[in-house]
Amino acid sequence: MKLSDKEVQSTPSTERVSLIRSRYLNEPLYIDSEYIKYYTEAHSKTDGQNVFERRAESHSYAMEHLTPVIREFDLIAGSKTRYVRGAIPYCNYASRYILREFKNEEAEAQDAFTDIGEGGGIAKAKEIAKKGEYEFFCKKYLISKEDKNTLKSSAEYFLGKSMQDVGDSLWKNVYDKAEYIDKGWQAGLYTAPHDPAPEGRYVLDFETALNQGLNGIIERLKDKIKNAEVTDFKSAEKIYFWRAGIRTLEATIQWAKNYGLEAERLSKKEKDPDRKKELEEIAERCFYVPANKPRNFRDAMQSFWFIYIAGHIEGAHLGYSPGRFDRYMYPFYKMDKDAGTITDAEVLELLEILRVKMTEIEYVASFSWAGLGSGNLFQNMILAGLDEKGHRGDNELSLLILQSAINCQTTQPTLSIWYDDSLSEEFLLKAIDCVKTGCGFPAWFNLKVFIQHELQKSNLPVSVIRKYAAMGGCTEPTMEGMSYGVVQAGFINHGKLFELAMNGGKDPRTGIQFDETKIPSDFEELYIAYKFHLRNSIRNWQRYWNFVMSAHRQTCNLIFSSVLVRDCIERGLSLDDGGAVCNGTPTTLSSGMVNVVNSLAVVKKLVDDEKLLSMDEMRTVISKNWEGYDKIRNKAVSVPKWGNNNDYADSIYEDLFDVYCGYVSEQKNYLGEPYDPSMLAISTHAPFGKVCGATPDGRFEGETLCDGVTSPFPGTDTNGPLAVLLSAGKIDHSKIRGGLHNMKFHPTVLKGIQGSKKLLSLIKTYFDTLGFQIQFNVVDSGMLADAQKHPENYRDLIVRVAGFSAFFVELGKTIQDEIIRRTEHSI
Amino acid sequence: MKSSGEPNIASDCALIFDVQDLSVQDGPGIRTTVFMKGCPLKCKWCANPEGQNLHVEFMHIKSLCGKNYNCVFVCPYHSATAENDYPEFNHSICNDCVTRECVDHCPSQAIKFTGRYLTTDELIKRIRPNLSYYKNSGGGVTFSGGEPFLQAGFISNFIENTQPLGLSVGVETCGMFDWEEVKKIANKFDFIYFDLKCMDSDVHKSVTGSENVKILNNLKNLTQMNNENITVSVPVIPGVNDSDEQIKDIAVFCKDIDIKRIRLLPYHFLGESKYANLGRTYLMEKDLSVPQHILAGLKKTVEVLEIHCSIE
Predict the structure, then answer these.
(1) Does B106 touch chain A (CB under 8 A)?
(2) Of the residues A657, A705, B55, B252, which has the maximum number of CB atoms within 10 A of its CB?
(3) Is residue B287 a part of any domain in this protein?
């Protein structure tokens, strides 16, 4: 099947969008050290200042000095770096990994297990690096010689001062489980420390920021200072925070004005009268927003973008998201439409341009994290849902956003839908059209389930939850504009925990001994040991992360974001001091539980029930990676697995799921609220699988673990897609913040309007069983296999991988293989 | 069409080769298709050759085969040999095998026995959890095959037992069945897809192994009982029935007995590899296809007679 045979065609709506999009597609990745250069400069001059003001000053000084770049065809100004695809190396978060690259030292222990893609822009970067002006850095970026020098001195400056170093010097010295954490990294029990990019998973209060304008917020801050009564150190500290907020917002306004000046400069030398006019309008707009409330939709687009990207620059973000864009932008759209001053075609063009601009943002982090995220920033735009009264939230703008994603295929932002039965059929069918393009989104989320979750966790009024429910990151729901951002420590590897349980706490691959447990001789003992290691690893990991968070407060507390999250200004507290309305957002993440459940089922069946072999023999069989044990492996394969609507395995999943959620909530996060359980995979299932030996479920050594949360392990769902969904519907999804269920469809399943309606009824029915999330891949394996062989012909092929989209040719090979292998639910 | 040599299957038990959920092209809504084994016709182009024989059959799935030849070593009957690239099997021995050592020892799961006996209760238990998916989509269960009416007693029993569930039941039939067995349940179906290959009985016999007289009579009988719900399915086979005249003959016949809908199913060779897996030879030329413009022309031919026509 050729791409052009798709039922729904994907073509940018205007020539301008096509040009901007292909400019992106043909651009390699760059590291841009400009921000960190100025940041370092200001930081080095402010030693001794209050922690908020120093952070604000460093960031603000850098913002004011960033070079504004406006490119040909641009209608919206502002970008994170000077390059089309540029990343900021945030030395203030972590600098050792950067210096390590400089020294060409061996990368972190885990890097050997992470596989970064080779296609597209990465290939082009290699080509440019050969010419000499730019050098290759961190295996996938280009960096200029000048930037390289700057970067090196910034990285050196932040030794001992970065968040990572400040954190390490604390927890590595005083935390009694420090050795455990370190062992966990070596064994692959945990993902590598993600200090280089810990921010994200939240949404700013765009509604307020747009409607009050940054000037309006500055006024509120000034009022706060004016009316402040200092009675103790806490009330004095608030003044520093408010002052820092003013400094940051003023710098942001200046930064926007610099774009205005640049547009003005370009307009003066522009010959083409049409473009000249466009540039003049851009300039005028940049002088007006984000300081003031937008006068029209174009203003609102520019203002949103400035606010959004300014937040993005302040922190090393993953999962930082635009949230309910179709809702807070709607009044501006409606105003212009009613006045007849904008057409839907014009709105569509702007929305398509926004897609490219969001895809242009890159990040650089420690090498192993970059491999995990596959370069994806998890920016999630969520559509529809409900209003505060519980009525459907989709509108004309929601439809245009879907259309923009159909027309302009880019990996970012990921679209999601808050599903409710009351959403309009027109909107739902358009969303299915988007699914049919094969881009992997929108992902579907059951709002009903999240409301139940949030009512248990946050005690907010149901009207507030309905209205402000959003998505921060790939599949983690958050309350827009009122939630704490830094949410998690990284992932826990269930597969590794299973190995520890099987082997008395000893990792068979590295020989590292964790807490010793009895070597199990039957299912019961194995399950007890597993639960011990699970609880232990969760508790140690959460407490470690609390140490890091205290370092975050001292070094990288977000000021811009704090003043744009309710109720930080009112409370006079930054995000890290508990200023947000919702501080229960930090989650504990894990992946690979399905393999554990299946392995437990096999042990129960073959060792306990059928007595086909003893536990010792089982340990031998898997330590030999099944070699010479085909018959036993076939027996193991035929034991009922998760995802077949068979209670033999499903009941183990249900129990383990509850156990996991219970353990996670036992500990409190840095802000004093219980941790919230969450399960995702992103792409951790590949590196996690690589460090695990064979498992009793029939999986071979090094094979990828199960993706998603409730999706079955590839090849084990022998009862068809409905049985998979029936299994997935059994657990109480309202217990976790986030969840993931991948389904892959051959395009013929969804053919025509009938196919669309059938998919909708499938989603509805799954959500009737209180499933939380579902997403679909519509591709065929032949096409993917060909793309693997000929990446050059499939540059813009997008595939959904566990909670996010990325260009297929840029994904690591192990992930590509798994996408191809995942059970095809064809008809 | 039971012959005395075939096993006598009680009405609460049927030989089935697949139960497939989320079938979206076998009738309205989300459906579960029950593929029943055994068919009186032997159409050359049959895409489900494993549905033809009314007995369990051995299949070696070559695309999965890892060529490790465990099957050759473990087979006590020496039915598997390693003479060529893939292991080869004497299917007539393998079909009767009950010990199935090769299945246990194949690391690639490349060997399967197609066909299993399922009771009505087992089938109902199997589909019951899906009821809400059927309800929300307007779907249900479709019997296909093979020829489902070869085991009509089972279907009758199933329908009787699922009536309280409000289940929608459809059937896809080749038309070759004993009317006496089917007439009791003929009006219980929400839809009947009735295959009609061609009007010329000699041609029919040469490509399916049987004449079409009984099929045409059955269709006439059916129309008198369940007319609204019948759709005639015409597999459009190059060189067999893809001429305008032949389709017109079918359409005229349908018009006479007041059939409202015809669907054209263009030939495809997706079943081709299954023949080799079953140890049989695919007799159709693989590269055949019906061009879109021909199909469009045939559709018009049908529509001229005011019969609704779709191309699947």
Answers:
(1) yes
(2) A705
(3) yes
